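2024-03-11 09:14:02 DEBUG pipeline.ingest accepted 1 chain
2024-03-11 09:14:02 DEBUG pipeline.ingest length=394
2024-03-11 09:14:03 DEBUG pipeline.predict start
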Amino acid sequence: MRIVIFDPCLADSGHYRYFNWHIAQLLDESGIEIIFADYAGYFKIWYKDLSLKKASFKIIKVSGSISPQTNKYGPMRKLIKIITYLPDRKWYKHVLKNIEYLKPDLIIITSEARGGEPALYINKIFTPVIIVLHTIKAVSCDAVRTRLIDFKLWRRFYIKECNKFISKINGILVLEEKLKNLLVNLGYNSVFRIPYLLFEDNIVNNTSKLSEEFLVSTIGGIYAGKNIEFIINCIESEQFIEFKYRVAGKATGNYGSYIKNRVENLASKSVTGHFKLLSTEDYIQEIEKAHFIALPYSNVRSDQASGVMFDAIRNYRPIIAPDIEPFASYVNNYNIGLLYKEGDKNSFIDTVNKAKKLGVKAFMNDLIKFHKEFKYENWRSKFLEYILSKSKEL
């Protein structure tokens, strides 16, 4: 069985590297050939030295350029582009045509088109298709907080086009039970839930690398949607802080620059930062130093869990997160950390103080249980059964 993995939104940072390999690991079974449809060279860089245990895989270039949707436009050109979709239609038509030349039994599209252009959904695809929906915003107006500049009529047209496409495809993958239930309520069938990440091998529980001082860290890309300024404001408002806070990761866009400047100019020595794209080794080291990993997401970003959350658990570090979904469910059901009331400074400080009092060891047994439940071997067979059924539907 030949399966093509196509991600229309590849970038040098973010979840793309790990999530697409995550899909490949779920497909890792004898008799399966995986083809990564590359167009920006990222797959070749990321996966050239990796291997799967049972499935075979190769990387094939399907385009010499990235999607026009990643380009920057002035206001007038952007408006023309939104109305016509022509640059995106041309690119997607070219890429999908090249993918179909590979004669796959199934195409898995692992991201929604970025920026709201439904060009991807307009092309006719003559191969069974499954798409990963990371949010419900692509199919429901109720899930979108539309600003005037977003053009409400345009937004409704976009969602209509998305629904038109999704209603014709063979299956939908989502990463949280909440999204699955919402899609089912909207009338979609053939929805299958897989976790955002899973664990393969047992990692040694190493607490010897913990920072001597109690350290709470936020790790990974720094961008709008992560409410890091909330934590900084909490620390600035307190006269005495009995913990250290560290921000480590690539600062992206205006928000990333703003956080970088805030941390570097902060009078308090309780906050430190490392604002560079982290290598895998540096990323793991940042997790290992921390006693708790803070996930200060806002409610806008609550459609799916964070890869950092799974990486924290993989390395046996509990989390501190706002009491929003899906983090609230993970903490309440699995006891993998502590919750604070979103936007409440006193609640956050109290939660961190409680975390310091309890320590990492208080959560260790539950972290180990979570680690065992969320292993590939416990999810692969049902996923493959779903995939096989969809490949036969055309």
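2024-03-11 09:14:41 DEBUG pipeline.report The radius of gyration is 22 Å.
2024-03-11 09:14:41 DEBUG pipeline.predict end
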